[in-house]
Amino acid sequence: MSSEILAPMPGTIIQVHVKPGDDVIEGQEMLVLEAMKMENPIVATTAGKVKEVNIAVDDKVATNQVLLSFE
């Protein structure tokens, strides 16, 4: 089963901590989204392996945009 992490709000990606192939655990911080001058950590909702990273540092994202997927 594959899962996707979506942007909860529009903003700018300021940190990316994972790459394809990385194993993640539930609750692990995968990236940081800056919105309205606040840093919002985006964490894994379940354990798995990162399949695809669709963003990079300084990318602007929209609400519900797919940030990354894992299996």
From N to C, what is the helix and strand string?
Answer: EEEEEEEE
Number of strands: 8
CATH class: Mainly Beta
* Strand ordering within the main sheet: 1-8-6-3
Oligomer: single chain
CATH 2nd-level architecture: Beta Barrel
- Determine the CATH superfamily: RNA polymerase II/Efflux pump adaptor protein, barrel-sandwich hybrid domain
Q: Overview of this structure, please?
A:
There is one protein chain. By secondary structure, the chain is an all-beta fold. The chain has a single domain, classed as Beta Barrel (OB fold (Dihydrolipoamide Acetyltransferase, E2P)), CATH 2.40.50.100. Helix content is 0%, strand content 54%. The chain has strands spanning 3-6, 11-16, 23-24, 29-35, 38-43, 48-53, 60-61, 66-70. The protein has a four-stranded antiparallel sheet with strand order 1-8-6-3, with no helix packed on it. It is globular and about 30 Å long. The mean pLDDT is 94.
Quick structural overview:
The protein has strands at residues 3-6, 11-16, 23-24, 29-35, 38-43, 48-53, 60-61, 66-70. It is mostly beta strands.
What secondary-structure arrangement, pairings included, does this model have?
Blueprint: E1 3-6, E2 11-16, E3 23-24, E4 29-35, E5 38-43, E6 48-53, E7 60-61, E8 66-70
Antiparallel strand pairs: 1-8, 2-4, 2-7, 3-6, 4-5, 6-8
List keywords for this structure.
71 residues, OB fold (Dihydrolipoamide Acetyltransferase, E2P), four-stranded antiparallel β-sheet, 8 strands, 0% helix, 54% strand
